[in-house]
Give the backbone structure.
Amino acid sequence: MINETRWDKSMEEPIINEWVKKKLYSFEDNSKKPVYSIDTPPPYINTPIHIGHGYTFICMDMMARYKRMKGFNVLFPLGLDCNGLPIEIQTEKQFNVSIRTTPREEFVKKCREMLDETSDISTNGFKGLGIGFNDYEFDYSKIGSKYRTDDPEYRALTQKTFKDAWDKGLIYEDNKPTNYCPVCRTTIADSEIDYKEEKSALNDIKFKVKETEKDIIISTTRPELLNSCQIILFNPNDDRYKNLQGKHAILPIYDREVLIKAHPAADKDFGSGLVMICSFGDTTDIRLFIELGLEPIYSINEEGKMMKVSGPYEGMNVKDARKKIIEDLKEKGFLVDQKIIDHRTPVCERSKNPIEFIAMKEFYLKQMDWVSKVRKAADEIEFYAPESKQLLLDWLNSISIDWPISRRRYYSTEIPIWYCKKCKYTYVNDTGKYLRPWIDSCPLKKCPKCNSNEWEGEKRILDTWFDSSISELFILGYDSNPKFFKNNYPCTMRPQGKEIVRTWLYYTILRGLQLTETTCFKQAWIHKHVVDEQGYKMSKSKGNGIDPRELISKFGCESIRFWTAMEGDITKGDIRCSFTRVEGAGKFISKLWNIARFISGFESVSKEPKELNKTDEWIMNELNKVLKDCDNHYNNYDFNGVAKIIRNFVWETYASSYLEMVKRRAYDKDSSALYTLYKSFKIILLTLAPIIPVITEKLFKEMYSSESIHLQKFPESGETKLSELTSKIIEFNSLVWAKKKEGNKSLKDSIKIEIPKELILFKEDLTNMHNIE
RNA sequence: GGGCUUGUGGUCUAGUGGUUAUGACGUCGCCCUUACAAGGCGAAUGUCGCCGGUUCAAAUCCGGUCAAGCCCACCA
């Protein structure tokens, strides 16, 4: 008998702690079960996890729990993403230091310190949500261990995969214009660019044509790049300018002459129809410079300041230089008009600062040659929801350059290269160990080419995505456990957000193909966002994020989890988070508890009677049907479907109708009734266990077994014949209740009513239930 | 500029041609019925974004339109 009259969220913590202590969900090393592997997205450790993280991890946890009950050996490690700019920025804030003025060794130490401190916060957040990771401790000798991407074990693999790609000729260094963020002072990839709608001034500037001495007008938003102009274009169909072909224009202020040429890139209808191409105002400029074989004239340096070539503006930052040159142009009569236009500016995803295009020597990973292979791989992956595949295909269609992978920052995996000081021989770390070339000495004593023993270590680090794009290789033991890897690659499931399809999913597939020649996932589950009550995206800068720990302390883990399942299908659309809805979901937890209290008040009968009463047979049939439906929905990762079906069944059919019908016989200790009550409720608990693991665990242990519910098999469904009577039964019961209400009678009072013919099977129970005369 | 997705009572949501449109949350009214007032019964709230078409019949199919969101793009 369950004594506590109410389920209370304070009962959750001891149960969850016991799971963690007993390592209930450990990955089974020597098991014969098929492996189901989930490559979880390592969340940035220093961002306090918000409800969006919580929500999606709960979904992944439901997958893991369901698959465990279906007999799989589930690989579900907790990973923490500990590399990259956000870590550095957080460290700068927390210790009030600057990466520019702090020695590298000290800064890196501080990053590590900051991460160690915050590591528990997020870990505890996940525990509190009842997430059944394999392990909450680091133990890299074991499959399924918790891991950090900045630990030597992980970074060693990152470097090894760099070496592998290097040996395959997939990595090269090149000096070409790249996206550069002057604030973060590093090269960034196309996938790290955001766009911001901004008002900017479109300036109409007067140029003189050398040959004719006539004026032409050119519109630009980047007048500060004037002296980087190498050509002026007009559209070949633009009759106004046909006479300018091959002539030259004189740049105002700088008095340099540039060629005028016809080219389809110029739009007749924009501005005057003439466009100046500078190195480099935007990506079009870059493309045209390459296409027309022009020599770039760089005017912005890596600090975001104007270079010598810009003359009087040297040393100014871009914004000031723009302001000043506009003033100067105006003063000298070159500026004829200025319009404010809406302009889509590419900005750095992290700093939100406009990016510049600067030529830098950087390492690139080849990806242009791989696009069609990745497209083929996309066809091999099952997407949930299927429409999500389009996100990946759209991205594939827009890839235009190889992936720049080197960064000029500190906290990420170091590029494992040493250069011979004498002959420039390049050595790539081949030791299998994690090494830091900026501080560690080269493993080779002598240069194999010139015998010199003086080496210079590479100072740059790798893009964070170069780390994260091998997570599935890491968790499956690509390097550490080749036998296991061979048997269990590709990874079963990649769950992740839609916003990182063009990064995490794409890069992982790309690198998986390059390293293993195999599509690395069988399935991908792409979720949309959890947004706030108004439908706005939660973000740190807006401050509208909801900390799940706040929700846990208010409503408890189970309410949040049931809300997660009830709210909607996150692969189909955004989910709004509202406190009242979480609270509402919690009512079902109470309902379940009270049903358990009712049943546990009777003696448990586990031996099946020879013959079941028809009411009991009916509820088992109906439950079988529900079970079958739930199983289907679980298989499609549609937890919303499961939750809605089982909630409706438990509340409307099971509690309202069945329990009332069976009550009399239960009090009379009828063995068919008692057996069925216990049996049916057990199936209900098992079906709900992946969604609400804590309360089902508690009730299961109180009523059925000392063993955890999470070690049980998912129930099999059986006969469903009588379930077609369900709606008739509910209809009849409602009718009786309505009649009594109409007649102002208490539910105890007797009533004269005829039982419908098709329900005559249940005559005895219905008569007792409604006190029918 | 192109593409994709979405638009159903105050809020969220089911519903891919067929009787008075599903359910939940919230609101209101009545009711302690030996598991549950964190419950039960019941009520109100909708021109299914707008316009037009196909059809005996449209929330559902088609065309257009508006709005929101996302993705992509070389308009300086």
User: Anything to note?
Assistant: Residues 64 and 525 of chain A are 13 Å apart (CA to CA). The mean pLDDT of chain A is 89.
